[in-house]
Design brief:
This protein has about 210 residues and is mainly α. The chain is about 70% helix and about 0% strand. It has helices at about 15-35, 40-45, 50-55, 60-85, 90-105, 110-120, 125-150, 160-180, 190-205. Helix 1 crosses helix 4. The chain is elongated and about 60 Å long. Keywords: DNA-binding, Repressor, Transcription, Transcription regulation.
């Protein structure tokens, strides 16, 4: 009597759940192997799906990476909008914004390095990253201008210069965190880092 066919161990999930599983698996694979060394088969295995299941949602590995970037940037910018819409003053809104960015950087394992790798090797995703940083810069500039108007920040502070300095610091911290997760604890050092950044915003015009 022939053996009964083995049941597939692949999961049959709703489309939205499968898509989210693919994105989470891809981010994990990118963090462990790097973007270039990760294959669609690797992502499918990590998500417990077939390659066909992955291709049903995404045409390529690059499309998966772009989806990760777009999801991260959209969620981050939306969260900042919620902060700015609150009743807190400019200093507290800036503090909350910086805390949000540090928190998201600390838990998005491997995303930054996969972005850097893809941009450097394949010149891919540049437009998305540029648009994200421009949007971040604009939001931080507005917060600093609000602080100037309310008297919380020096009236002659250069909002664009300070916003650029803060974003550069955040990017550097994120990269350092990715390269040395054991030595750089963004969340544990968050308050000190943010105090320092707020000090830059308040005192930049007085130096």
């Amino acid at each position: 009597m022939p053996d009964a066919p083995k049941k597939s161990t692949r999961r049959k999930l709703p489309e939205s759940v499968r898509r989210e599983a693919i994105l989470k698996a891809a981010q994990l694979c990118f963090a462990r192997r790097g973007y270039t060394e990760t294959s669609v088969s690797d992502i499918a295995d990590a998500a417990q799906l077939t390659k066909g299941g992955v291709y049903f949602h995404f045409a390529s590995k690059e499309e998966i990476r772009l989806a990760l970037i777009r999801e991260f940037t959209s969620q981050t910018l939306s969260a900042i909008d919620n902060i700015v819409d609150g009743d807190a003053g400019a200093t507290q809104n800036l503090r909350k914004t910086l805390a949000l960015l540090l928190e998201r950087m600390s838990r998005e394992d491997g995303l930054l390095l996969s972005v850097i790798e893809a941009v450097a090797r394949h010149h891919s995703g540049i437009d998305e990253i540029r648009a994200y940083y421009q949007a971040l810069s604009t939001k931080i500039i507005h917060l600093i201008l609000d602080g100037r108007a309310s008297g919380e920040f020096h009236g002659e502070i250069d909002a664009e210069m300070v916003a650029e300095a803060l974003l550069s610091m955040l990017s550097g911290l994120a990269l350092h965190h990715e390269l040395d997760r054991a030595g750089v604890h963004l969340c544990k050092q968050q308050d000190q880092m943010i105090d320092y950044m707020i000090g830059i915003a308040r005192g930049a015009a007085n130096g």
